[in-house]
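Quick note —
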Amino acid sequence: MSKDLSLFLLSIRGTLASPTLEAARKLHNSTAGAPANITAAQSLGDVSHMVHVPLEAPQKGAGEFLILDIWNNLEGLNNFFANPTVQEQAGQIFTRRDPVVWTPAEGFVSYHIPAPSGKNERFVTTARAKVKSVEEARKLHNSAVANTLNKARKAGNLSHESYFRMAAPGSPEALEWFGVDVWMRPDDMMSYYEDADFLAGFNEMFTDEAITAVWVHPKGDWVEW
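Predicted structure written out below.
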């Protein structure tokens, strides 16, 4: 018997509590990255755990931190983070954090394009904003993506995905959109985001200016899966 596959993106963005990124790495690996915690998370549906820091280094402290996890079991996700120990460990990693569960934006074009051999650097961009309406946003988004895909690829784009914030049961449709792009080089990335054809669609989608950021994998050996 076939089983429907549903994927959920958990984003946790916040400020690291550790004084340095190296101290944050050791703390992350001994808490979220501990073998027992990995086994528990994976058994409940956590199929991917990736960590990121801003492209620009912080002026002081360890700076901001972004975790992007993909889960295939919403009940398992809720059960895992309901564990007091997990919450305590998250409080050790962050001084401030904003965990959000997102679902894939239905009908919004997404893509994943293979990287050429040797192109191993990865840069992740995120954008977050409220849309005026889901239907209008879908049309504007898909038109902009279709019209600029070749430009994006030439600029080093590897993938584009859209999500909407998960609405609580019985609540109105969620209008908060979250976009995640992956790039293999940063030099042409920003010029693409400033392209008139790209802006013509995306600027019209939102009720206000999107919150954007560029992220990279932190230096050192961070536990991921």
